[in-house]
Amino acid sequence: MISDNASFYKKDILPVTTFAVVLLTMPFWFRYIGGYSGLDTKIVIWIIFAIGFDILLGYMGFLSFGHAAFFGTSAYFTGLMLLHYSNNILPAITVGVISAIIMAFIIGFLTLKRTGIYFSILTLAFGEMLHSMVLSTLQDWTGGDNGLTGLPTPMLFDIKMQGDNVFYLTVIVAIVMYYIARRIIGSPFGLMLKAIKSNQVRLEYTGVHVARYKLMGFVISAVYAGVAGALMIVYEPYVASEFMGWHLSGQVVIMTVLGGVGTLFGPMLGAAFMLYFENVVSVYLGAQWLLVLGAIFMATVIFLPGGFVEAGSRIKKALTGGGK
Amino acid sequence: MSDQAYFSCRDLHAYYGESYIVQGISFEVAEGEILALLGRNGAGKTTTLSAIARMQDPQVKQGSITLAGQDLTAMKPYEAARAGVQLVPEDRRIIPGITVEENLIIAQISEPKGWDLERIYNHFPRLRERRKQEGVTLSGGEQQMLAVARALARDIKILLLDEPYEGLAPVIVKEIEGIVREIKELGITTIIVEQNAVAALKLADKAIIMESGEIVYSGSAKEVLESKALREEYLAI
Question: Per-residue confidence at A2, pLDDT binned at 50, 70, 90?
Protein backbone atom coordinates (compact mmCIF):
# COMPACT_ATOMS: atom_id res chain seq x y z
CA MET A 1 0.00 0.00 0.00
CA ILE A 2 2.53 2.56 1.12
CA SER A 3 4.91 1.76 -1.72
CA ASP A 4 1.99 2.20 -4.12
CA ASN A 5 1.38 5.74 -2.93
CA ALA A 6 4.06 7.21 -5.16
CA SER A 7 2.55 5.60 -8.22
CA PHE A 8 -0.85 6.91 -7.16
CA TYR A 9 0.43 10.44 -7.59
CA LYS A 10 2.02 9.60 -10.91
CA LYS A 11 -1.14 7.94 -12.11
CA ASP A 12 -3.09 11.10 -11.37
CA ILE A 13 -0.78 13.68 -12.86
CA LEU A 14 -1.37 12.93 -16.55
CA PRO A 15 -5.18 12.75 -16.55
CA VAL A 16 -5.57 15.74 -14.26
CA THR A 17 -3.15 17.85 -16.26
CA THR A 18 -4.83 16.91 -19.52
CA PHE A 19 -8.18 17.74 -18.00
CA ALA A 20 -6.87 21.09 -16.79
CA VAL A 21 -5.32 22.01 -20.14
CA VAL A 22 -8.43 21.09 -22.13
CA LEU A 23 -10.71 23.12 -19.85
CA LEU A 24 -8.41 26.12 -19.48
CA THR A 25 -7.94 26.46 -23.24
CA MET A 26 -11.65 26.06 -23.94
CA PRO A 27 -12.29 29.78 -24.59
CA PHE A 28 -9.76 29.60 -27.43
CA TRP A 29 -10.99 26.57 -29.31
CA PHE A 30 -14.61 26.13 -28.28
CA ARG A 31 -15.98 28.74 -30.68
CA TYR A 32 -14.49 26.93 -33.68
CA ILE A 33 -16.86 24.05 -33.12
CA GLY A 34 -19.89 26.26 -32.69
CA GLY A 35 -19.62 26.89 -28.97
CA TYR A 36 -20.02 30.25 -27.31
CA SER A 37 -18.88 31.75 -24.08
CA GLY A 38 -21.27 30.93 -21.28
CA LEU A 39 -21.95 27.48 -22.65
CA ASP A 40 -18.40 26.50 -21.73
CA THR A 41 -19.04 27.57 -18.13
CA LYS A 42 -22.26 25.58 -18.04
CA ILE A 43 -20.48 22.51 -19.39
CA VAL A 44 -17.85 22.74 -16.66
CA ILE A 45 -20.55 23.05 -13.99
CA TRP A 46 -22.30 19.96 -15.29
CA ILE A 47 -19.00 18.11 -15.43
CA ILE A 48 -18.64 18.66 -11.67
CA PHE A 49 -22.17 17.38 -11.14
CA ALA A 50 -21.50 14.30 -13.30
CA ILE A 51 -18.24 13.42 -11.52
CA GLY A 52 -20.06 13.29 -8.19
CA PHE A 53 -22.90 11.31 -9.68
CA ASP A 54 -20.47 8.75 -11.05
CA ILE A 55 -18.94 8.23 -7.61
CA LEU A 56 -22.38 7.17 -6.43
CA LEU A 57 -23.59 5.24 -9.47
CA GLY A 58 -20.41 4.00 -11.07
CA TYR A 59 -18.40 3.10 -7.99
CA MET A 60 -20.89 2.52 -5.20
CA GLY A 61 -23.58 1.14 -7.50
CA PHE A 62 -26.52 3.25 -6.34
CA LEU A 63 -28.72 4.87 -8.98
CA SER A 64 -30.24 8.06 -7.60
CA PHE A 65 -33.13 9.63 -9.44
CA GLY A 66 -33.29 12.52 -7.04
CA HIS A 67 -29.93 14.21 -7.28
CA ALA A 68 -31.59 17.48 -8.22
CA ALA A 69 -32.48 17.70 -4.53
CA PHE A 70 -28.85 18.49 -3.72
CA PHE A 71 -28.17 20.63 -6.76
CA GLY A 72 -31.39 22.55 -6.10
CA THR A 73 -31.05 22.91 -2.34
CA SER A 74 -27.59 24.33 -2.77
CA ALA A 75 -28.77 26.61 -5.60
CA TYR A 76 -31.59 28.03 -3.49
CA PHE A 77 -29.46 28.60 -0.43
CA THR A 78 -26.74 30.20 -2.51
CA GLY A 79 -29.38 32.43 -4.08
CA LEU A 80 -30.94 33.33 -0.74
CA MET A 81 -27.53 34.18 0.70
CA LEU A 82 -26.71 36.44 -2.23
CA LEU A 83 -30.08 38.11 -1.94
CA HIS A 84 -30.31 38.59 1.81
CA TYR A 85 -26.85 38.37 3.29
CA SER A 86 -24.07 39.51 1.01
CA ASN A 87 -23.26 39.49 -2.67
CA ASN A 88 -19.93 37.88 -1.87
CA ILE A 89 -19.97 34.37 -3.30
CA LEU A 90 -17.79 32.75 -0.63
CA PRO A 91 -20.33 32.69 2.20
CA ALA A 92 -23.09 31.99 -0.33
CA ILE A 93 -21.37 28.94 -1.83
CA THR A 94 -20.33 27.68 1.60
CA VAL A 95 -23.87 27.84 2.95
CA GLY A 96 -25.21 26.35 -0.28
CA VAL A 97 -22.91 23.34 -0.15
CA ILE A 98 -23.51 22.83 3.57
CA SER A 99 -27.25 22.81 2.95
CA ALA A 100 -26.75 20.11 0.31
CA ILE A 101 -24.67 18.08 2.76
CA ILE A 102 -27.36 18.30 5.45
CA MET A 103 -30.01 17.33 2.92
CA ALA A 104 -27.86 14.37 1.82
CA PHE A 105 -27.51 13.15 5.39
CA ILE A 106 -31.28 13.22 5.82
CA ILE A 107 -32.22 11.70 2.46
CA GLY A 108 -29.32 9.24 2.51
CA PHE A 109 -30.19 8.03 5.99
CA LEU A 110 -33.76 7.36 4.89
CA THR A 111 -33.10 5.83 1.48
CA LEU A 112 -29.83 3.88 1.66
CA LYS A 113 -31.37 1.04 3.61
CA ARG A 114 -32.84 -0.08 0.30
CA THR A 115 -31.00 -1.06 -2.84
CA GLY A 116 -31.73 -1.30 -6.55
CA ILE A 117 -34.98 0.05 -7.89
CA TYR A 118 -36.37 0.73 -4.41
CA PHE A 119 -33.54 3.09 -3.67
CA SER A 120 -34.06 4.81 -7.01
CA ILE A 121 -37.78 5.27 -6.41
CA LEU A 122 -37.23 6.56 -2.90
CA THR A 123 -34.74 9.17 -4.08
CA LEU A 124 -37.12 10.19 -6.85
CA ALA A 125 -39.90 10.57 -4.29
CA PHE A 126 -37.78 12.72 -1.99
CA GLY A 127 -36.61 14.83 -4.91
CA GLU A 128 -40.14 15.47 -6.07
CA MET A 129 -41.26 16.20 -2.53
CA LEU A 130 -38.69 18.98 -2.30
CA HIS A 131 -39.63 20.22 -5.74
CA SER A 132 -43.27 20.55 -4.79
CA MET A 133 -42.37 22.20 -1.50
CA VAL A 134 -40.42 24.80 -3.43
CA LEU A 135 -43.46 25.45 -5.60
CA SER A 136 -46.03 25.54 -2.83
CA THR A 137 -45.26 25.53 0.90
CA LEU A 138 -42.02 27.43 0.63
CA GLN A 139 -42.95 29.79 -2.17
CA ASP A 140 -42.65 32.91 -0.02
CA TRP A 141 -38.93 32.19 0.18
CA THR A 142 -38.33 30.49 -3.12
CA GLY A 143 -40.49 32.60 -5.39
CA GLY A 144 -42.49 29.50 -6.35
CA ASP A 145 -42.88 28.95 -10.05
CA ASN A 146 -41.15 32.21 -10.93
CA GLY A 147 -37.98 31.16 -9.21
CA LEU A 148 -35.77 33.33 -7.08
CA THR A 149 -35.23 36.57 -8.97
CA GLY A 150 -33.62 39.93 -8.38
CA LEU A 151 -30.28 38.59 -7.19
CA PRO A 152 -27.41 41.05 -7.14
CA THR A 153 -24.33 40.58 -9.30
CA PRO A 154 -22.20 38.03 -7.44
CA MET A 155 -18.82 39.31 -6.27
CA LEU A 156 -15.65 37.60 -5.11
CA PHE A 157 -14.60 40.42 -2.78
CA ASP A 158 -13.88 43.18 -5.35
CA ILE A 159 -14.06 41.01 -8.45
CA LYS A 160 -17.28 40.97 -10.40
CA MET A 161 -18.30 37.41 -11.09
CA GLN A 162 -19.25 37.65 -14.72
CA GLY A 163 -18.08 36.19 -18.03
CA ASP A 164 -14.52 34.90 -17.98
CA ASN A 165 -14.16 35.34 -14.24
CA VAL A 166 -16.94 32.84 -13.63
CA PHE A 167 -15.52 30.51 -16.24
CA TYR A 168 -12.06 30.38 -14.71
CA LEU A 169 -13.48 30.04 -11.22
CA THR A 170 -15.55 27.02 -12.25
CA VAL A 171 -12.62 25.50 -14.12
CA ILE A 172 -10.36 25.77 -11.08
CA VAL A 173 -13.03 24.23 -8.88
CA ALA A 174 -13.60 21.46 -11.44
CA ILE A 175 -9.88 20.60 -11.63
CA VAL A 176 -9.61 20.39 -7.85
CA MET A 177 -12.75 18.30 -7.58
CA TYR A 178 -11.68 15.96 -10.37
CA TYR A 179 -8.36 15.42 -8.62
CA ILE A 180 -10.13 14.76 -5.32
CA ALA A 181 -12.46 12.28 -7.02
CA ARG A 182 -9.50 10.37 -8.45
CA ARG A 183 -7.85 10.27 -5.06
CA ILE A 184 -11.06 9.02 -3.45
CA ILE A 185 -11.43 6.26 -6.03
CA GLY A 186 -7.81 5.17 -5.57
CA SER A 187 -7.98 5.15 -1.77
CA PRO A 188 -9.05 2.34 0.57
CA PHE A 189 -12.35 4.19 0.83
CA GLY A 190 -12.76 3.87 -2.94
CA LEU A 191 -12.04 0.18 -2.65
CA MET A 192 -14.75 0.00 -0.03
CA LEU A 193 -17.21 1.66 -2.41
CA LYS A 194 -16.38 -0.93 -5.07
CA ALA A 195 -16.92 -3.71 -2.55
CA ILE A 196 -20.27 -2.18 -1.58
CA LYS A 197 -21.23 -2.28 -5.24
CA SER A 198 -20.31 -5.92 -5.68
CA ASN A 199 -21.43 -7.36 -2.36
CA GLN A 200 -22.51 -5.41 0.69
CA VAL A 201 -23.25 -8.44 2.84
CA ARG A 202 -19.83 -9.98 2.37
CA LEU A 203 -18.18 -6.69 3.20
CA GLU A 204 -20.08 -6.52 6.46
CA TYR A 205 -18.47 -9.76 7.63
CA THR A 206 -15.01 -8.29 7.39
CA GLY A 207 -15.98 -5.94 10.19
CA VAL A 208 -17.00 -3.00 8.03
CA HIS A 209 -19.91 -0.87 9.18
CA VAL A 210 -21.33 -0.75 5.66
CA ALA A 211 -24.22 1.64 6.36
CA ARG A 212 -21.82 4.35 7.49
CA TYR A 213 -19.66 4.07 4.38
CA LYS A 214 -22.69 4.10 2.11
CA LEU A 215 -23.84 7.32 3.74
CA MET A 216 -20.37 8.81 3.30
CA GLY A 217 -20.34 7.90 -0.40
CA PHE A 218 -23.78 9.40 -0.82
CA VAL A 219 -22.86 12.62 0.94
CA ILE A 220 -19.65 12.99 -1.07
CA SER A 221 -21.68 12.64 -4.23
CA ALA A 222 -24.09 15.29 -2.94
CA VAL A 223 -21.19 17.67 -2.25
CA TYR A 224 -20.38 17.61 -5.97
CA ALA A 225 -24.03 18.25 -6.79
CA GLY A 226 -24.08 21.05 -4.24
CA VAL A 227 -20.96 22.72 -5.62
CA ALA A 228 -22.41 22.50 -9.12
CA GLY A 229 -25.73 23.98 -7.95
CA ALA A 230 -23.99 26.87 -6.19
CA LEU A 231 -21.76 27.63 -9.18
CA MET A 232 -24.80 27.65 -11.43
CA ILE A 233 -26.17 30.59 -9.42
CA VAL A 234 -22.84 32.38 -9.59
CA TYR A 235 -22.88 31.88 -13.35
CA GLU A 236 -26.47 33.02 -13.75
CA PRO A 237 -27.88 34.78 -10.68
CA TYR A 238 -31.37 33.38 -10.91
CA VAL A 239 -32.70 30.23 -9.21
CA ALA A 240 -35.16 28.36 -11.40
CA SER A 241 -37.56 25.94 -9.76
CA GLU A 242 -36.46 23.37 -12.36
CA PHE A 243 -33.15 23.12 -10.52
CA MET A 244 -35.05 21.01 -8.02
CA GLY A 245 -36.99 18.95 -10.58
CA TRP A 246 -36.77 15.38 -11.79
CA HIS A 247 -35.80 16.54 -15.27
CA LEU A 248 -32.46 17.70 -13.93
CA SER A 249 -32.01 14.45 -12.00
CA GLY A 250 -32.72 12.53 -15.19
CA GLN A 251 -30.25 14.58 -17.18
CA VAL A 252 -27.31 13.67 -15.00
CA VAL A 253 -28.30 10.00 -15.22
CA ILE A 254 -28.33 10.17 -19.02
CA MET A 255 -24.98 11.98 -19.14
CA THR A 256 -23.35 9.40 -16.92
CA VAL A 257 -24.74 6.44 -18.84
CA LEU A 258 -23.92 8.00 -22.23
CA GLY A 259 -20.34 8.67 -21.23
CA GLY A 260 -19.62 5.41 -19.45
CA VAL A 261 -20.57 4.52 -15.90
CA GLY A 262 -17.76 4.05 -13.41
CA THR A 263 -15.01 5.72 -15.42
CA LEU A 264 -15.12 9.34 -14.10
CA PHE A 265 -13.88 10.42 -17.51
CA GLY A 266 -16.96 9.08 -19.32
CA PRO A 267 -19.56 11.05 -17.39
CA MET A 268 -17.57 14.24 -17.95
CA LEU A 269 -17.59 13.51 -21.64
CA GLY A 270 -21.30 12.71 -21.44
CA ALA A 271 -21.99 16.03 -19.74
CA ALA A 272 -20.07 17.96 -22.38
CA PHE A 273 -21.77 16.06 -25.17
CA MET A 274 -25.29 16.59 -23.81
CA LEU A 275 -24.88 20.33 -23.39
CA TYR A 276 -23.15 20.71 -26.71
CA PHE A 277 -25.88 18.72 -28.40
CA GLU A 278 -28.67 20.60 -26.65
CA ASN A 279 -27.28 24.05 -27.40
CA VAL A 280 -25.29 23.77 -30.63
CA VAL A 281 -26.33 20.71 -32.62
CA SER A 282 -30.01 21.22 -31.85
CA VAL A 283 -29.96 24.42 -33.93
CA TYR A 284 -29.34 22.35 -37.05
CA LEU A 285 -31.80 19.63 -36.10
CA GLY A 286 -34.68 21.92 -35.25
CA ALA A 287 -37.49 20.58 -33.14
CA GLN A 288 -36.42 16.98 -33.66
CA TRP A 289 -33.24 17.32 -31.61
CA LEU A 290 -34.70 15.58 -28.56
CA LEU A 291 -35.78 12.69 -30.74
CA VAL A 292 -32.26 12.34 -32.10
CA LEU A 293 -30.80 12.54 -28.60
CA GLY A 294 -33.20 9.82 -27.49
CA ALA A 295 -32.11 7.63 -30.40
CA ILE A 296 -28.45 8.19 -29.55
CA PHE A 297 -29.15 7.28 -25.94
CA MET A 298 -30.96 4.08 -26.89
CA ALA A 299 -28.28 3.07 -29.36
CA THR A 300 -25.62 3.64 -26.73
CA VAL A 301 -27.38 1.58 -24.11
CA ILE A 302 -28.05 -1.28 -26.55
CA PHE A 303 -24.78 -1.41 -28.48
CA LEU A 304 -22.32 0.28 -26.15
CA PRO A 305 -23.27 -0.46 -22.56
CA GLY A 306 -19.94 1.04 -21.54
CA GLY A 307 -20.82 4.37 -23.17
CA PHE A 308 -18.44 6.62 -25.07
CA VAL A 309 -15.51 5.24 -23.14
CA GLU A 310 -16.25 1.77 -24.47
CA ALA A 311 -16.56 3.18 -27.98
CA GLY A 312 -13.16 4.76 -27.54
CA SER A 313 -11.51 1.57 -26.37
CA ARG A 314 -13.13 -0.40 -29.21
CA ILE A 315 -11.84 2.07 -31.80
CA LYS A 316 -8.40 1.92 -30.22
CA LYS A 317 -8.50 -1.85 -30.38
CA ALA A 318 -9.52 -1.81 -34.04
CA LEU A 319 -6.77 0.66 -34.91
CA THR A 320 -4.07 -1.34 -33.21
CA GLY A 321 -5.00 -4.31 -35.37
CA GLY A 322 -7.36 -6.13 -33.01
CA GLY A 323 -4.46 -7.27 -30.87
CA LYS A 324 -4.40 -6.94 -27.12
CA MET B 1 -20.52 -25.21 32.91
CA SER B 2 -18.04 -22.73 34.21
CA ASP B 3 -18.58 -18.99 33.90
CA GLN B 4 -15.13 -18.18 32.64
CA ALA B 5 -15.13 -20.20 29.42
CA TYR B 6 -13.33 -18.44 26.57
CA PHE B 7 -16.17 -19.07 24.19
CA SER B 8 -19.57 -20.38 25.06
CA CYS B 9 -23.03 -20.95 23.67
CA ARG B 10 -25.76 -21.33 26.21
CA ASP B 11 -29.17 -22.82 25.50
CA LEU B 12 -29.06 -21.56 21.92
CA HIS B 13 -32.27 -21.70 19.89
CA ALA B 14 -32.10 -20.56 16.27
CA TYR B 15 -34.77 -20.29 13.58
CA TYR B 16 -34.91 -19.81 9.84
CA GLY B 17 -38.24 -18.07 9.59
CA GLU B 18 -40.70 -20.55 11.06
CA SER B 19 -38.43 -23.54 10.97
CA TYR B 20 -36.84 -24.39 14.25
CA ILE B 21 -33.30 -25.54 13.47
CA VAL B 22 -31.03 -25.30 16.48
CA GLN B 23 -32.97 -26.53 19.46
CA GLY B 24 -31.25 -25.50 22.63
CA ILE B 25 -27.57 -26.37 22.46
CA SER B 26 -24.88 -25.47 24.97
CA PHE B 27 -21.15 -25.91 24.60
CA GLU B 28 -17.92 -24.13 25.27
CA VAL B 29 -14.49 -23.88 23.73
CA ALA B 30 -11.33 -23.11 25.67
CA GLU B 31 -8.76 -20.67 24.37
CA GLY B 32 -6.55 -22.18 21.69
CA GLU B 33 -8.71 -25.24 21.37
CA ILE B 34 -10.09 -26.71 18.17
CA LEU B 35 -13.63 -27.99 18.31
CA ALA B 36 -15.04 -30.24 15.59
CA LEU B 37 -18.76 -29.79 15.11
CA LEU B 38 -20.05 -32.90 13.40
CA GLY B 39 -23.28 -34.42 12.26
CA ARG B 40 -25.26 -35.37 9.20
CA ASN B 41 -26.64 -33.02 6.63
CA GLY B 42 -29.36 -30.88 8.15
CA ALA B 43 -28.28 -31.43 11.73
CA GLY B 44 -27.90 -27.68 12.30
CA LYS B 45 -24.11 -27.34 12.16
CA THR B 46 -23.92 -24.48 9.67
CA THR B 47 -26.87 -22.78 11.33
CA THR B 48 -24.95 -22.82 14.60
CA LEU B 49 -21.92 -21.22 12.97
CA SER B 50 -24.07 -18.60 11.24
CA ALA B 51 -25.73 -17.78 14.54
CA ILE B 52 -22.34 -17.31 16.18
CA ALA B 53 -21.19 -15.01 13.35
CA ARG B 54 -24.44 -13.08 13.94
CA MET B 55 -25.67 -13.37 10.38
CA GLN B 56 -29.08 -11.84 9.69
CA ASP B 57 -30.40 -15.37 9.28
CA PRO B 58 -30.88 -17.47 11.38
CA GLN B 59 -32.65 -15.58 14.13
CA VAL B 60 -31.53 -16.42 17.63
CA LYS B 61 -34.69 -16.42 19.72
CA GLN B 62 -33.26 -17.71 22.95
CA GLY B 63 -29.92 -18.29 24.57
CA SER B 64 -26.62 -16.46 24.64
CA ILE B 65 -23.25 -16.45 22.91
CA THR B 66 -20.20 -15.06 24.66
CA LEU B 67 -16.62 -14.68 23.53
CA ALA B 68 -13.80 -13.56 25.83
CA GLY B 69 -16.21 -11.87 28.16
CA GLN B 70 -18.19 -10.07 25.46
CA ASP B 71 -21.82 -10.89 24.84
CA LEU B 72 -22.26 -11.42 21.10
CA THR B 73 -25.92 -12.29 21.22
CA ALA B 74 -27.35 -8.89 20.24
CA MET B 75 -24.50 -7.82 17.94
CA LYS B 76 -24.73 -6.99 14.25
CA PRO B 77 -22.51 -8.91 11.80
CA TYR B 78 -19.88 -6.18 11.57
CA GLU B 79 -19.83 -5.78 15.34
CA ALA B 80 -19.28 -9.50 15.82
CA ALA B 81 -16.49 -9.33 13.24
CA ARG B 82 -14.88 -6.50 15.18
CA ALA B 83 -15.28 -8.43 18.40
CA GLY B 84 -13.06 -11.10 16.85
CA VAL B 85 -15.36 -13.60 15.16
CA GLN B 86 -14.34 -14.63 11.66
CA LEU B 87 -16.47 -17.01 9.68
CA VAL B 88 -15.05 -18.73 6.62
CA PRO B 89 -18.26 -20.00 5.09
CA GLU B 90 -18.70 -22.82 2.64
CA ASP B 91 -19.05 -20.41 -0.28
CA ARG B 92 -15.88 -18.64 0.96
CA ARG B 93 -17.48 -15.26 0.48
CA ILE B 94 -14.79 -13.69 -1.68
CA ILE B 95 -15.92 -10.22 -2.73
CA PRO B 96 -16.36 -10.13 -6.51
CA GLY B 97 -15.08 -7.35 -8.71
CA ILE B 98 -11.90 -6.74 -6.75
CA THR B 99 -8.49 -8.41 -6.70
CA VAL B 100 -7.00 -10.90 -4.28
CA GLU B 101 -4.92 -8.20 -2.68
CA GLU B 102 -7.86 -5.82 -2.45
CA ASN B 103 -9.86 -8.52 -0.68
CA LEU B 104 -7.09 -8.67 1.89
CA ILE B 105 -6.75 -4.89 2.18
CA ILE B 106 -10.46 -4.51 2.76
CA ALA B 107 -10.29 -6.93 5.66
CA GLN B 108 -7.77 -4.63 7.29
CA ILE B 109 -9.64 -1.38 6.95
CA SER B 110 -11.56 -1.69 10.17
CA GLU B 111 -9.71 -2.40 13.40
CA PRO B 112 -8.32 -4.62 14.78
CA LYS B 113 -5.77 -5.70 12.18
CA GLY B 114 -4.07 -9.05 12.23
CA TRP B 115 -1.29 -10.27 9.98
CA ASP B 116 0.17 -7.81 7.50
CA LEU B 117 0.24 -8.56 3.78
CA GLU B 118 3.90 -9.59 3.84
CA ARG B 119 3.30 -12.23 6.47
CA ILE B 120 0.22 -13.51 4.66
CA TYR B 121 2.10 -13.77 1.37
CA ASN B 122 4.97 -15.58 3.04
CA HIS B 123 2.53 -18.17 4.32
CA PHE B 124 0.53 -18.36 1.13
CA PRO B 125 2.95 -17.81 -1.76
CA ARG B 126 0.19 -18.78 -4.18
CA LEU B 127 -1.75 -15.71 -3.16
CA ARG B 128 1.26 -13.52 -3.81
CA GLU B 129 1.44 -14.92 -7.34
CA ARG B 130 -2.21 -14.17 -7.88
CA ARG B 131 -2.48 -10.90 -6.00
CA LYS B 132 -3.53 -8.84 -9.03
CA GLN B 133 -6.10 -11.37 -10.17
CA GLU B 134 -9.80 -10.98 -9.39
CA GLY B 135 -10.53 -12.97 -6.22
CA VAL B 136 -13.48 -14.93 -7.57
CA THR B 137 -11.48 -16.22 -10.55
CA LEU B 138 -9.26 -18.32 -8.28
CA SER B 139 -9.72 -22.07 -8.08
CA GLY B 140 -11.76 -23.49 -5.22
CA GLY B 141 -8.72 -24.32 -3.13
CA GLU B 142 -7.13 -20.95 -3.71
CA GLN B 143 -10.36 -19.22 -2.77
CA GLN B 144 -10.40 -21.22 0.45
CA MET B 145 -6.84 -20.12 1.02
CA LEU B 146 -7.82 -16.50 0.39
CA ALA B 147 -10.78 -16.80 2.74
CA VAL B 148 -8.54 -18.12 5.52
CA ALA B 149 -5.88 -15.52 4.75
CA ARG B 150 -8.49 -12.81 4.92
CA ALA B 151 -9.54 -14.07 8.32
CA LEU B 152 -5.92 -13.95 9.49
CA ALA B 153 -5.61 -10.40 8.18
CA ARG B 154 -7.85 -9.45 11.06
CA ASP B 155 -7.01 -9.90 14.70
CA ILE B 156 -9.38 -12.74 15.36
CA LYS B 157 -10.35 -14.40 18.59
CA ILE B 158 -12.25 -17.29 17.11
CA LEU B 159 -12.20 -18.78 13.63
CA LEU B 160 -15.27 -20.54 12.29
CA LEU B 161 -14.54 -22.89 9.40
CA ASP B 162 -17.56 -24.24 7.57
CA GLU B 163 -16.73 -27.39 5.61
CA PRO B 164 -13.30 -26.22 4.47
CA TYR B 165 -12.73 -29.39 2.45
CA GLU B 166 -16.05 -29.29 0.65
CA GLY B 167 -15.75 -29.86 -3.10
CA LEU B 168 -11.97 -29.71 -3.25
CA ALA B 169 -9.54 -32.04 -4.94
CA PRO B 170 -7.53 -34.34 -2.61
CA VAL B 171 -4.32 -32.42 -3.29
CA ILE B 172 -5.95 -29.20 -2.24
CA VAL B 173 -7.49 -30.89 0.78
CA LYS B 174 -3.91 -31.71 1.87
CA GLU B 175 -2.98 -28.08 1.47
CA ILE B 176 -5.96 -26.84 3.45
CA GLU B 177 -5.19 -29.41 6.10
CA GLY B 178 -1.75 -27.87 6.34
CA ILE B 179 -3.31 -24.46 6.80
CA VAL B 180 -5.63 -25.70 9.52
CA ARG B 181 -2.72 -27.41 11.28
CA GLU B 182 -0.88 -24.12 11.18
CA ILE B 183 -3.90 -22.37 12.63
CA LYS B 184 -3.75 -24.89 15.45
CA GLU B 185 -0.05 -24.22 16.02
CA LEU B 186 -0.73 -20.51 16.12
CA GLY B 187 -3.16 -21.23 18.91
CA ILE B 188 -6.19 -19.72 17.21
CA THR B 189 -9.38 -20.93 18.79
CA THR B 190 -11.36 -22.65 16.06
CA ILE B 191 -14.68 -24.32 15.46
CA ILE B 192 -14.57 -26.52 12.41
CA VAL B 193 -17.72 -27.94 10.85
CA GLU B 194 -17.35 -31.07 8.76
CA GLN B 195 -19.52 -33.76 7.32
CA ASN B 196 -16.70 -35.98 6.29
CA ALA B 197 -15.33 -36.01 9.75
CA VAL B 198 -12.04 -37.89 9.80
CA ALA B 199 -9.90 -35.02 8.60
CA ALA B 200 -11.45 -32.66 11.13
CA LEU B 201 -11.23 -35.13 13.98
CA LYS B 202 -7.52 -35.67 13.45
CA LEU B 203 -6.95 -31.99 14.08
CA ALA B 204 -9.52 -31.28 16.74
CA ASP B 205 -9.20 -31.46 20.49
CA LYS B 206 -12.87 -31.81 21.24
CA ALA B 207 -15.84 -32.97 19.23
CA ILE B 208 -19.55 -32.37 19.32
CA ILE B 209 -22.04 -34.39 17.32
CA MET B 210 -25.34 -32.79 16.46
CA GLU B 211 -28.52 -34.42 15.31
CA SER B 212 -31.83 -32.69 14.55
CA GLY B 213 -30.67 -29.49 16.17
CA GLU B 214 -29.51 -31.03 19.43
CA ILE B 215 -26.21 -32.20 20.79
CA VAL B 216 -26.14 -35.98 21.04
CA TYR B 217 -22.49 -36.39 21.90
CA SER B 218 -19.86 -34.22 23.45
CA GLY B 219 -16.39 -35.40 24.28
CA SER B 220 -12.86 -35.69 23.01
CA ALA B 221 -12.13 -35.91 19.31
CA LYS B 222 -9.96 -38.92 19.85
CA GLU B 223 -12.81 -40.81 21.41
CA VAL B 224 -14.99 -40.30 18.34
CA LEU B 225 -12.17 -41.39 16.05
CA GLU B 226 -11.71 -44.57 18.02
CA SER B 227 -15.32 -45.46 18.65
CA LYS B 228 -16.80 -47.35 15.74
CA ALA B 229 -20.22 -47.33 17.36
CA LEU B 230 -20.36 -43.54 17.66
CA ARG B 231 -19.22 -43.07 14.09
CA GLU B 232 -21.69 -45.55 12.68
CA GLU B 233 -24.61 -44.24 14.63
CA TYR B 234 -24.23 -40.56 13.95
CA LEU B 235 -21.74 -39.95 11.19
CA ALA B 236 -22.07 -42.87 8.78
CA ILE B 237 -18.32 -43.20 8.38
Answer: very low
pLDDT in tens, B183-201: 888 888 999 998 767 878 8
Q: Do A208 and B78 touch (CB under 8 A)?
A: yes
pLDDT, residue B48, reads: 93
pTM of the model: 0.85
Looking at the partner chain, which of B55, B76, B106 has a beta carbon nearest the beta carbon of A206?
A: B106
B95-145 residue pLDDT tens: 888 999 999 998 888 778 888 999 999 988 889 999 999 988 988 888 888
**Chain B residues close to A204, C-beta within 8 Å:** 76-78, 81
What number of H helices and E strands is found in chain A?
Answer: 16, 2
Please say if the pLDDT value at position B20 is more than 60.
Answer: yes
Query: Which stretches of B130-227 are DSSP H helices?
Result: 140-152, 170-185, 197-203, 221-226
Domains of chain A and any CATH numbers: 2-252 (1.10.3470)
Residues from chain A contacting residue B107 (CB–CB below 8 Å) = 206-207
Half-sphere exposure of B65 (CA within 13 A, CB side): 24
How is chain B split into domains, by residue range? 7-235
Q: How far, in Å, CA of B163 to CA of B160, rounded? A: 10
CATH of B7-235, one of 2.60.120.560, 3.40.50.300, 3.90.25.10, 3.40.50.1820: 3.40.50.300
- Measured between beta carbons, which residues in chain A are less than 8 angstroms from residue B102? 191, 194-195
Cβ-contact B231, B211 below 8 angstroms: no
Name the residue of chain B whose CA is nearest to A1's CA. Answer: B105
